[in-house]
Write a structure and sequence with these properties.
By secondary structure, the protein is mainly alpha-helical. It has seven helices and two strands; from the N terminus they run ααααααββα. A two-stranded antiparallel ribbon has the order 1-2. α2 packs antiparallel against α6. The radius of gyration is 18 Å and the shape is globular. The model has no long low-confidence stretch (mean pLDDT 84).
């Protein structure tokens, strides 16, 4: 049985949220990569169309996105070694997930400006919900706020003892991450459905 688009989207979303450590700095790194991959994919799609290489679109796009992920990881290996070592293979998940959900293939007949607007609106929904997920886990689950620091290290500012907020420490665990990701995913899908309704309404005018 073939998976529908919503099921594929859920799988891709969870494949990024669950393996990534529940700290804001890691989530920010991955969400930034998704935004950059979307931009690279958009430009590569336009180039493929211009060169009339549509038959090779899948191979070219996947190769380009994986190559960009390798380059992106190398930058962090140079400037943020601790973060790069912690994330490891997770750097490659956004390329696979973004490619799998097919956002880069949608709206082929629209101009690049129109496609950019639709693509980055959908990607922004994905990334904003993801950032809130990681920010909540970092603050409520661990009682900290993490960000990029000097000397290849991560800054961890302790805000409070997470044990003082009781139940919120549950969100620092894997089961807690699953529940929280379910809530984030619900909001994400709801926002995407509203966007699709608006798109259809505009198309029928």
């Amino acid at each position: 049985m073939r998976m529908n688009k919503t099921q594929i989207y859920i799988a891709a979303y969870l494949a990024i949220l669950i393996p990534t450590p529940g700290r804001f700095v890691y989530g920010l790194t991955i969400m930034l990569e998704i935004l950059l991959l979307a931009a690279v994919g958009l430009l590569m799609n336009a180039l493929i169309k211009q060169l009339k290489m549509e038959k090779l679109r899948t191979a070219i796009l996947l190769t380009t996105m994986v190559a960009f992920s390798i380059f992106y990881r190398q930058l962090f290996t140079i400037f943020q070694t601790e973060l790069s070592l912690t994330l490891g293979y997770i750097f490659y998940l956004p390329a696979v997930s973004l490619f799998t959900i097919g956002l880069l293939y949608e709206d082929k007949d629209k101009t690049i400006i129109e496609r950019a607007g639709l693509l980055f609106t959908k990607v922004a929904i994905f990334c904003i919900s993801g950032l809130f997920f990681f920010l909540f886990r970092d603050i409520a689950g661990f009682g900290t706020f993490t960000f990029y620091g000097p000397n290849h290290q991560i800054i961890e500012k302790v805000l409070f003892n997470p044990e003082t907020v009781g139940i919120f420490t549950f969100f620092a665990s894997i089961p807690g991450a699953l529940i929280l990701s379910g809530l984030a995913l619900f909001v994400n899908i709801l926002a995407r459905q509203q966007l699709d309704i608006l798109e259809k309404g505009e198309a029928n005018k």
